[in-house]
Design brief:
Elements lengths: L1 E8 L4 H12 L4 E7 L4 E6 L6 H10 L3 E4 L16 H24 L8 H18 L1 H12 L5 H21 L8 H25 L1 H7 L5 E5 L5 E5 L8 E4 L8 E6 L2 E4 L1 H4 L5 E3 L4 E2 L4 E2 L4 E7 L5 H13 L7 H28 L4 H14 L2 H21 L2 E3 L2 H7 L4 E4 L1 H5 L5 E7 L5 H12 L5 H12 L8 E6 L3 E6 L2 E6 L1 H6 L11 E7 L2 E9 L6 H10 L3 E5 L4 H11 L3 E3 L4 H12 L5 E5 L5 H6 L2 E5 L4 H6 L2 E3 L6 H34 L4 H4 L5 H19 L8
Parallel strand pairs: 15-22, 15-24, 22-23, 24-25, 25-26
Antiparallel strand pairs: 1-3, 1-4, 2-3, 5-6, 5-7, 7-13, 8-11, 8-13, 9-10, 9-12, 14-26, 16-21, 17-18, 18-19, 19-20, 20-21
Length: 722
């Protein structure tokens, strides 16, 4: 299955989204279909052998909407919904609806102007109404088309309401009745709904600014340096791996690469959320989109296009914003039949007032029209996805990549956070403090043996051993038959002899007797089951770790550490950062088992890690949180990825999740309460006792306000600060 996303045009409410979902879901080879109304995005998993992108586009078109596939390439033009004529249409509707209102209400409100005979006044209203109906023509084309397909949407309610008002008024006018006309109501309803849609669309666009900002990070041009050291300005999109480019002070890096000449400090805040520039020297990786400081440098391009970090982040954020969190299911179910319910309520309202109560046709129609326009499925449809878009977007700007809506929703329920030690709580750049060799074994020979075995490993402890051997300029022997055992160590052959290297558990498992010379992280080396010595390794604790643990405690969250290291080393680190608990000597499966143990107690658990040995625990946890510098396996298993090494991002991610879910609950509460209270009010339920009556125009105002208020409430997340 392949993940595909499409930009959808022509949607006006959640009922439109539901209609598209039903149509696309019928296609063979399509799974997990979700239309995000707020983002105007269709997300799905497709089997490319059974269904093509063109087929999906055609299916959406047949349902009455437009679709264009979203490219993974950051430089590719992205499809946008066409709104160029909407402002002009709205202004047209506004001008003529004002003239219409003045003509209809001049006598009643004693407004200045020429006295018109009743029949001329009535037909003048018709003349002013026609441009308004033209401006709002999409309500009628979309609304009646959806109604004929038996999948009515918000446009259907507006179309039925205003058409009924206009046709009834025209009938009265032709019959010689010039009072109680609803032409002005029809015009004002169309205008107010158009205004609400414009404000809603403008506000919704702000929620997706995170992606637009990321897409604007990559510069348009790059300074390509050839073999003769001649610089040529070329489009950044034309760069390929292996190219050498010059980055001048203040410029953005055009693509991911490695600094080959020069020294500088680079601002990576747009990618990581970290405001402090990072010093880069020869061999340092540089990320496309980051801003160069005062130094000029040469960079060898390593990754371009959709393979760059910026492109992967954009794809991740876009996919997350298009996901469906569990909390959205209720609103989606209600939105699916909401319009049908409103149509039924409006018809019932008219029948009760006209036939049962004996009210006039005009009064009964007014109640029914008010029901049609005040009902707002848009608020229900926007309540969850607009907050999701804003929350995930804000997370991206803070260097917190939330991969899906489920992870965001679950994070707010977390009550226990488990941490890996090496590279997570600690810096992940350990150093060999001392080499302890057994009798008759040279320390340099022991170090060379260990470095040779660790050469191919990506574990931070392995890197420390190799670095120390490089510092001593030791010659490393040839190694064969390397087998790595995550959480334990490795085995290999050097000069035909079996070499074992790893922790105490690994040695004991292989029948090698060991003893710890002192507390700390120890890597043992054995040859043919005989202990040759050990390496004492120190990995300093991150300066932010203690503060992060304190913030989590302030959120009411229990913390513990899960590590494969010795108990003494674990307790030392746990004491420094004031963790609530620690478990040592754990294999990858053991870490996952501890997670499941806590889950069996009814607790929601988050796991923070960065290595291959953390992948099972990350996958097992309710929320996996990976450090971006970690392995691909760890990042793939995680639901949240931290773009910077600062552990304070962990409580920030949880606080962001809680803030987003609070906004979603507020939006859903408002949307449900609005419809539960306003629909009976519009239907005249309170009129016999309290005299409360809502006009269709007031209903249109309330409906527009309802949608916009939900969006504006969600946009508060853009100002979230951890």
């Amino acid at each position: 299955m392949m993940k595909m996303q499409f930009k959808i045009g022509g949607m006006h409410c959640s009922a439109c989204a539901a209609s598209i979902e039903r149509s696309v879901r019928k296609l063979e080879g399509v799974e997990n279909v979700y239309v995000n109304f707020a983002a105007s995005m269709l997300s799905l998993d497709a089997d490319p052998e059974k269904v093509s992108a063109d087929k999906i586009v055609q299916t959406v078109k047949s349902a009455g909407f437009t679709a264009a596939e979203i490219s993974d390439e950051p430089d590719a033009p992205q499809p946008e919904e066409k709104n160029s004529g909407e402002l002009f249409r709205f202004l047209t509707a506004l001008i003529f609806s004002v003239l219409l209102f003045y003509t209809a209400m001049r006598d009643m409100l004693h407004l200045p102007g020429p006295e018109l005979v009743p029949w001329l006044n009535g037909w003048l209203q018709v003349v002013f109404l026609l441009p308004v109906l033209w401006a709002g023509s999409r309500f009628y084309t979309s609304g009646f088309r959806s109604l004929l397909r038996l999948s009515p949407n918000m446009d259907s309610l507006v179309a039925v309401c205003t058409s009924a008002a206009a046709v009834y008024s025209l009938f009265l006018l032709l019959g010689g009745e010039y009072r109680h006309l609803y032409f002005d109501s029809a015009g004002m309803i169309v205008t107010l709904v158009m205004l609400g849609k414009l404000l809603e669309a403008r506000s919704r666009s702000h929620a997706s600014e995170a992606i637009r900002e990321l897409m604007n990070l990559t510069p348009a041009t790059a300074h390509l340096v050839d073999a003769d050291d001649v610089e040529t300005d070329v489009p950044a999109s034309s760069l390929k791996p292996g190219d050498i480019v010059r980055v001048r002070p203040g410029e953005r890096v055009p693509a991911d690469g490695v600094l080959t000449e020069g020294e500088t400090a680079i601002d990576e805040s747009m990618l990581t959320g970290e405001s402090i520039p990072v010093v880069k020297t020869g061999g340092s990786p540089v990320t496309g989109g980051s801003v160069n400081g005062n130094g000029s440098f040469l960079c060898r391009i390593e990754r371009t296009g959709k393979d760059t970090a910026v492109a992967r982040i954009i794809a991740l954020v876009r996919e997350a914003q298009g996901s469906r969190p569990p909390v959205a299911r209720l609103a989606d179910i209600v939105s699916g039949f909401f319009v049908w319910l409103v149509l039924a309520v409006a018809l019932t309202t008219f029948c009760i007032w006209f036939f049962a109560v004996g009210q006039t046709f005009s009064m009964s129609l007014s109640f029914a029209l008010s029901v049609l326009v005040i009902a707002c499925p848009c608020a229900l449809g926007l309540a969850t996805p607009i907050a999701l878009i804003a929350g995930i977007g804000r997370g991206a700007s803070l260097g917190i990549l939330i991969k899906n809506g489920t992870a965001l929703e679950t994070a707010c329920k977390v009550r226990v956070v488990a941490f890996d030690k090496t590279g997570t709580v600690t810096e992940g750049r350990p150093e060999v403090l001392r080499v302890e060799a057994s009798a008759g074994v040279e320390k340099n020979a022991l170090l060379a043996l260990a470095a040779a075995a660790e050469k191919g490993s990506n574990h931070p402890l392995a890197a420390a051993v190799v670095r120390r051997a490089d510092e001593y300029q030791l010659t490393l022997p040839a190694v064969s038959e390397i087998r790595e055992f995550p959480g334990l160590g490795l085995s290999c052959r050097i000069d035909g002899k079996e070499i074992l290297l790893g922790n105490e558990t690994w040695m004991t498992r292989n029948g090698v007797a060991v003893s710890a010379p002192e507390a700390g992280t120890l890597v043992y080396v054995a040859e043919e089951k005989q202990l040759l010595g050990c390496l004492l390794i120190h990995d300093p604790v991150k300066t932010s770790s203690a503060e992060a643990i304190g913030h989590l405690r302030g959120l009411g969250i229990r913390t513990l550490m899960l590590t494969g290291d010795s108990l003494s080393a674990a307790e030392q680190v746990a004491g420094q950062v004031k963790l609530d608990d620690c478990r040592a000597g754990l294999l990858p499966a053991d870490k996952a088992a501890v997670i499941r143990e806590m889950q069996s107690q009814g607790k929601k658990v988050a796991m923070v890690g960065d290595g291959i040995n953390d992948a099972p625990a990350l996958a097992c946890a309710d929320v996996g949180i990976s450090i971006s510098s970690g392995t691909d396996a760890a990042m793939e298993s995680a639901g949240i990825v931290l773009m910077r090494h600062d552990l304070r991002a962990v409580p920030s991610a949880i606080a962001l999740s809680r803030a987003t879910m609070r906004i979603i609950r507020e939006n859903l509460f408002w949307a449900f309460c609005y419809n539960i209270i306003c629909i009976p009010l519009a239907a005249g339920v309170f009129y016999p006792w309290l005299g409360w009556k809502l006009s269709p125009v007031a209903g249109a105002c309330a409906m527009a306000f309802s949608s916009v208020s939900v969006v504006l409430n969600a946009l508060r997340l853009r100002r979230f600060e951890p």
